[in-house]
Amino acid sequence: MSRVSEETTAGASGLGYDAILLASFGGPEGQDDVIPFLRNVTAGRGIPDERLEEVATHYRANGGVSPINEQNRDLLAALEGEIAGRDWHLPLYWGNRNWDPYLPETLQQMHDDGHRRVLMLVTSAYAGYSSCCQYREDIDRGLEKTGLTGSLEIVKIPQFFHDRAFIAPFQEALATGIRDVRAQLAAKGEPDAQPKIVFVTHSIPTAIAEAQGPDHVKEEYGTDAYSAQHEAVARTLMRTVPEAAGLEHTLVFQSRSGAPSTPWLEPDINDAIEEYAAAGTRAVVVMPIGFVSDHMEVKWDLDTEARDTAAELDLAFHRAPTPGTHAAFVSGLVDIVAGQFAGARSPEQGTQEVPGKWGDICCVTGCRPRLTARSGSGRPAGADAGSPAPGSESR
Ligand SMILES: CC1=C(CCC(=O)O)c2cc3nc(cc4[nH]c(cc5[nH]c(cc1n2)c(C)c5CCC(=O)O)c(CCC(=O)O)c4C)C(CCC(=O)O)=C3C
Ligand SMILES: [Fe+2]
Predict the structure, then answer these.
(1) Is 28 touching ligand 1 by the criterion CB < 6 Å?
(2) How far is the CA of 94 from the centre of ligand 2 (A)?
(3) Positive or negative torsion for Cα 45, 63, 166, 329
(4) Which is the closest atom of ligand 1 to the Cα of 257?
(5) What's the average model confidence in pLDDT over 176-199?
(6) What's the CATH number of domain 6-27+66-159+326-341, 3.40.50.2300, 3.40.50.1400, 3.40.50.1000, 3.40.50.460?
(7) Does the model's ipTM exceed the 0.85 cut?
(8) Protein residue whose Cα sits closest to atom 23 of ligand 1
(9) Model confidence over 290-348: pLDDT tens digits?
């Protein structure tokens, strides 16, 4: 286990941690990077070649560059500013799962710099295999690869989809989006048409979604935990944004991949927009609540494909921004970090905006963190049945 004693790790900062690690997905920075990046992402997962070629064109059309790295650099700079303002003197590091700077190199660097206990913030707000477990697995693998297992402790901040940090920027974005499509409708001579609010997230295979617990969430919400989190976010936004009163909303999915024969969560956003148009909808506000930044999948699937679909059907269309470097997101994330310093025992803190007893639901099945999974809530989280309670021995 990554057992590091308190004495050596109280942290020079006096906060219990030596540094903060921003962990992200990573993306290509030029045409030559595109295929190696896609191979990293899909290593061993049998994504059909046709799908890789198709995804490559999304990057190729943008010069082979994903916007995600630039967005993470911006986020790092913003976080640095906010942290400096709180007088913490905590260095911030950046590591990616799929592209340079790779997590193992960052782990090594942090250790070389003398850090032993690091708080990890992931650029993904929800519980789920891709958004949470895979980060834990890659940290474990990175520690193994660098031989740092046991001498560097990484503590992951719990998922924050329900926190004010994540919700506040979307509240503002939803109000702005509704005003924008209303103006578009008025300009088209359709001032009485009511926009439909289309919340969208990344599709995942239904089998993976259904396997994701915990059971109390499935029972309470009557759906898989992945969908339940998004539906709860959508309902909170509808309830708290005055402009949305009386409007209809829905949750749809984007960026399906995998084999066509494997069922993924549906409906696809383009099919859904067609269906709404056929039923008389004249405007859509697209809310990308699945993502923290406007990365490639947002730009391509929403700003290109979904926008085209809406245009063909003559619908008014607005794609709302993701939190990105919104001031409320940045300061809210740093508040979450502060909560971890303060020894937060539960992710359900004072800044929870989305009601519900979510617990720390990184994932229940499919997650194989062997070494580092203590997520900061003070109890083992997302442990697979059959694997040792991760991190329960680490403090
Ligand atoms: C739930 C989820 C999130 C949201 C959580 C989060 O935000 O982390 C997310 C984010 C992202 N996914 C990204 C890119 C890709 N995802 C792929 C493939 C897949 N994603 C999946 C799920 C998710 N993915 C799944 C079930 C697959 C297929 C199987 C697999 O491979 O496990 C593929 C392979 C080709 C393809 O099939 O599309 C690519 C290139 C980028 C970077 C974009 C950029 O470069 O700006 C980001 C932020
Ligand atoms: Fe993905």
Answers:
(1) no
(2) 19
(3) positive
(4) 37
(5) 98
(6) 3.40.50.1400
(7) yes
(8) 130
(9) 999 999 999 999 999 999 999 999 999 999 999 999 999 999 999 999 988 877 555 45
